[in-house]
Amino acid sequence: MKLLFHYWTSPYCRKIRAILAEKNQDFSLKLVKPWVRDNSLIQLNPAGTTPVLIDNGNTIIGNIAITEYLEEAYPEKKLITGNKFERAEIRRLTDWFDSKFYNEVYKNLVIEKIDKRLSATGSPDSNALRAGWSNIDIHLSYIDYLMDRRRYLAGNELSLADLTAAAHLSTIDYLGDIDWDKHRQAKEWYARIKSRPCFREILCDYLTQIPPSKHYADLDF
Questions:
Q1: How many domains are there within the chain?
Q2: Cα 111 to Cα 109: distance, rounded to the nearest angstrom
């Protein structure tokens, strides 16, 4: 049985959970809160960050390393496919969401509205919130653009790019901060991804102090 050290709203942890489930791998979860020192995690990863995966007694640390490891270790269901140009496009869009979306949207909304409250480290920064709300529309418009031309983000097949983007978007959708009616193509794509069995458990995540938006787990939202 694999063990994944994770945090509820981390898009990187959600991505790894989705990959494991998409590849039909059994795993259990150990919750780690970023603001609470966890000695068992630090023994594995001195940085004290998640995700960290234990598989067959081996420890793999970090979002990128775990993703590449799972692609190599469990190739029966590959998520980086196609020729070298198609694989490059999958990696480009994966990095887009893991880097650009994370910095422009996630940090400005989820960290401000959820992490600060749970860790009791202050109130949300209004400037950060405004930036996050403005940036989310830009990113959703880009997904609209891609969906006008492709069945999935990186091409005609489901890929790592789709699971990565959906993992990030699910954290924003938890807050109800996405106006889906303005982005119909993005909404239809996200509905397809969140309907996959690999997202079932993720959509059951529930923070008692901060309940999700009413449509968060609704597959027909």
A1: 2
A2: 6
